[in-house]
Amino acid sequence: MATNLGGLVKRLQDIMRNDPGINGDAQRIEQIIWALFLKVYDAKEEDWEMDEDDYHSIIPEPYRWKNWAHDDGTGTAYTGEELLEFVNDLFTVLKNLSITPDMPKKKRIVKTMFEETNQYMKDGVLLRQVINVIDDINLESYDNMHALGDIYETILKELQSAGRAGEFYTPRAVTDFMADRIEPHLGERMADFACGTGGFLVSWLRELEKQIAAPDDRALWNHSVYGIEKKQFPYMLAITNLLLHGVDNPDIDHGNSLLHDVLDYTEKDKFDKILMNPPYGGSEKKDVMSHFPDDLADSETADLFMSVILYRLKQGGRAAVVLPDGFLFGTDNTKVNIKKKLMAECDLHTIIRLPGSVFAPYTSITTNILFFDRTHPTEKT
């Protein structure tokens, strides 16, 4: 299995380099992700059909992976122009799926996965080769799913090389360290409000999985993480990442955490643990800042996310957050007010200075990990 998967990304990229419709590694990776998602989703649906007597796929039968992607060698599989036409129809169907709020998340994610996704390839023969490589991946065992999950990190690193992931890829060594130090426990819920490709969610799940000893524990594990990501591409990566790591109902929303009035959050919107590397260096518009109290309204993205964290961390909860020097040492009124709120409501017990090489060459900004616990009464606003 490892040998088969080891060169997976390279094999697919080599095929797509000959296609005139794809420009650069970022588009090649996006092409891989939508096909890989459908392959993984199909494997998951087989499990759900066995476990649930009344399970019905949200994907119409002709468009389910198992009904069109497999090439049995008889010459009947779609290829060339026929395949291109079929895949274009597939995208239209999935983008326009009918969903309802009460529909299980594992069904609704199909539509949100494809709403802003593109099919770039123009050579149907090469597309058939790509589909064949992905269809040949063996996903029948739990171990294989996890092996592919590890290989998936190769895709994320390739994204960095393509210049697309500097803002939403945090090295696994960092996410694993933070997840270990925050001490996950079964029954707790963890959140990342700018989850990118889902690195923190997966590190939490890996750490928590060590505590599973019974079927009920597996259910708690499956529902222990929440993420939200505003950009379509990393959202796609995060959903597929969690499916690959065994989460049946990835609780990841496609949206912007900053577009919600922080004063409206109630206890049910809060989490036991928060792990984040919020975007920093960005500047938000006034309509975003309007969702925050005047004394905490700042155009700096990292500052706003820090306020969100303070409003959504439960009493007794713990957080680990990567933040730039600008937050620690900034002296403007808003930064000072956010830090006052942090110190008033939480015990900021540990600050770790990260080496400059951690995020190089994508940023030269010096960063730190802040570990804090909500141990004090909530400050009245």
Gross morphology is globular
N- to C-terminal separation?
A: 56 Å
Please tally the β strands and state the result: 7
Largest sheet: 7 strands, mixed
* Proportion of residues in extended strands: 5-15%
CATH class of the largest domain: Alpha Beta
Quick structural gist:
Helix content is 47%, strand content 11%.
Keywords:
single chain, 381 residues, alpha/beta, Ferritin, Rossmann fold, 2 domains, 7-stranded mixed beta sheet, 47% helix, 11% strand, globular
How does this structure look, described?
The chain is an alpha/beta fold and 381 residues long. The protein folds into two domains: 1-141, Ferritin; 166-381, Vaccinia Virus protein VP39 (Rossmann fold), CATH 3.40.50. Helix content is 47%, strand content 11%. The chain has 16 helices and seven strands. The protein has helices at 2-6, 8-16, 25-51, 65-68, 80-95, 105-114, 124-135, 142-161, 172-181, 199-209, 215-222, 232-244, 286-289, 301-312, 325-329, 333-345; strands at residues 190-192, 225-229, 252-254, 271-276, 313-324, 347-353, 367-373. Strands 3-2-1-4-5-7-6 form a seven-stranded mixed beta sheet, with helices on both faces. Helix 5 crosses helix 7 (124-135). The longest helix has 27 residues, at 25-51. The radius of gyration is 22 Å and the shape is globular. The termini are far apart.
Q: Which helices and strands occur, and which strands form pairs?
A:
Layout: H1 2-6, H2 8-16, H3 25-51, H4 65-68, H5 80-95, H6 105-114, H7 124-135, H8 142-161, H9 172-181, E1 190-192, H10 199-209, H11 215-222, E2 225-229, H12 232-244, E3 252-254, E4 271-276, H13 286-289, H14 301-312, E5 313-324, H15 325-329, H16 333-345, E6 347-353, E7 367-373
Parallel strand pairs: 1-2, 1-4, 2-3, 4-5
Antiparallel strand pairs: 5-7, 6-7
Helix pairs in contact: 2-3, 2-7, 3-7, 3-12, 5-7, 8-12, 9-10, 14-16
